[in-house]
Specification:
110 residues, alpha+beta, 41% strand
Amino acid sequence: MIVTTTQSIEGKSVVKYLGIVTGEAILGANIFRDMFAAIRDVVGGRSASYERELGKAREIALDELEDWGEEVGANAIVGVSLDYESFGQSNGMMMVSATGTAVLVEDIAG
């Protein structure tokens, strides 16, 4: 499965659009509580534990996006966009959402 943020794939031609597909992952408050405890130990800079958790959530969302693409018969997903939202009481939850267009592509004859 080809997954790309671009609208086209070099050397490929879109032969069929199969619709919009999405994937989501939600991180709960416990994860954030644990991460913020680790952040308190960090003086400035980046928090590796926070980045790891967001990375895992992004991977889950993209895996789910691919699963939906396969389910509708796609061999590629174009125009992928990632969105990060916080919500819940005191913004204690975070959602990572991946959205794209499932397509069927073929090699360009040449």
